[in-house]
Design goal:
homodimer, 317 residues, alpha/beta, Nucleotidyltransferase, domain 5, 2 domains, five-stranded mixed beta sheet, 10 helices, 12 strands
């Protein structure tokens, strides 16, 4: 077995793991991200890898991180949460670690993992939509990870959903992630609780609207709470409408829903499926993609990053 | 030189041509489409090919047609303008013609032609957006025509632009082609003329709003008429907004604008470019795709269909 280390670097946490060729995580660790200092961040990654190498024979290291990754997979063009510094990230880490390093967008890495080892095994044309704090994604087209002309494809969260809609952190308005992310769900839940449309939520939050969380919505929806289910229906309506555009353009066979919001399961999957079928052009004639929940949870990013690094180094099939 | 015949079958006209391996059209013919009778339609195509074969040594035949083409490229799943009948179109034509036949969506065929021989030569990741009666398109990803999981990708005209917007023939509302096609331009031009916002147009139409055409808008815009230019700006604003979503998802290096509307040239290209840059997520950081006008005009469809048939038959590089 050829082993690789995958490192999923989030804004607050770093998750690293030793991953085998079948996507099995042999060892895993999590730690806080030193988000303000590029040197500390690189050192934390290098030390974690060094520690894992004392126990495993590792051939390559893959990083998954939020933001725009350069087309050569060696540095970040833009990162919303972390300070990576200006120099080539892969050069610096390779010097510190002594192994080939490959940098990948976190959404791409997770999509690749689901394609190779998770919900998308054996499907040539698929997209993963990660419903987290924002909405990320990755495209597998003709069985390959599609990166675009400049390496930064699959920014699905910034699909334009509503003209002159809700302002987005990206500077535009009406982006999908303002309607279908974990943050959007929480914001909408607070409003619903404040307006008396979700009494169950308000109660769960001890009567304090500010304490309402997305997780509470998931838990109450699972228990059949109407206010919580209505919030998922609203999110699913927006998501299904956005997916309809992606289906018209890309015609995938499969859409995998991942990220924290997808952990709510059928209460988000079923209404999204219904909304997509309602909104799809040529709905009666156009074969609809299947929708599935992601299988690898929050280890998808590190599994995919590891597998892509192994492939990129020419060390696996 | 290995020659193929390309046939672009439109709702009202059939264009056929003998195309060499460098995309040069050696001979071309146009005739009306027998749109109501599948047998007549096939016979018209077979006779045209037979006639061309008396003068050229042809190895394959490619059809380009509007609609959803089956993934095996042998029949139509759905055609909006023509009656093709239920049987396999390629089987029937091969029996009649005695050569391999490949069926392709017309937008895909035109995009392939621009990639191989036109505005997109040498660019790996590009899309062609055809602004005609509707809005069609084709995706070239990693230098290959991307057809999707069911063979019907690149229905760019049905990108959802405005929620609850203008009704579309597809049954949904707010599709891009209701704002950025030749039909949309003509409709908007008639309204502008009727409302006194385009006096030049009304004059060109002899004072009769119903006589206003898209071509008049192009001609007046080329001459600097403000009302006509404003109509292109409006169309370009919608198109640029739709393209911004496609850029977020696909990150192409190049977008080729084709179809009748694109013949207006810079008056549509420049404001579309401006709108795209304004609407793009990460506009300062995200490398913008180049926008170019298509080079092959309305022969792109038959050139691409011929070249794809030659490749599909394994008879060219």
């Amino acid at each position: 077995m050829v082993l690789a280390v995958g490192v999923d670097v989030g804004g607050t946490k770093i998750a690293a793991g030793v991953v085998d060729e079948e996507g099995v995580v042999l060892e895993q660790t999590r730690m806080p991200s030193p988000s303000d200092d590029p040197t500390e961040l690189r050192e934390a990654i290098a030390e974690t890898v060094a520690s894992m190498r004392t126990r495993h024979d590792v051939v390559a290291v893959g990083l998954g991180a939020a933001g725009f990754v350069a087309a050569d997979r060696r540095s970040m063009i833009f990162a919303p949460h972390l300070q990576w510094g200006d120099a080539s990230l892969a050069d610096q880490l390779e010097a510190a670690i002594g192994l080939p390093v490959n940098v990948e967008n976190d959404g791409n890495a997770a999509a690749w993992a689901e394609h190779r080892f998770g919900a998308g095994r054996g499907v040539d044309d698929q997209m993963t939509v990660a419903l987290g704090t924002g909405v990320g994604g990755g495209l597998i087209l003709d069985s390959e990870l599609y990166r675009g002309g400049h390496g930064i494809a699959a920014e699905i969260g910034h699909l334009g959903l509503v003209r002159q809609g809700r302002p987005c952190k990206c500077g535009r308005r009406g982006c999908l992630e303002q309607y279908a992310s974990g943050s959007a769900l929480e914001r909408d839940a607070k409003v619903a609780a404040a307006e008396g449309r979700a009494p169950g939520l308000l109660e769960a939050a001890g009567g304090d609207v500010e304490q309402v969380t997305g997780r509470m919505v998931s838990e109450l929806a699972a228990a059949g709470d109407e206010g919580a289910l209505a919030l998922f229906d609203e999110l699913a309506g927006a998501l299904g409408t956005g997916l309809a555009t992606l289906v018209a353009v890309l015609d995938p066979s499969l859409i995998v829903l991942g990220g924290g919001v997808s952990e709510a399961g059928d209460v988000v999957l079923r209404p999204t499926e219904a909304a997509l079928r309602r909104e799809m052009t040529g709905g009666d004639i156009h074969p609809a993609p299947e929708l599935r929940l992601a299988e690898l949870g929050n280890t998808a990013g590190l599994i995919g990053a590891a597998d892509l690094a192994r492939r990129h180094a020419g060390l696996s099939a």
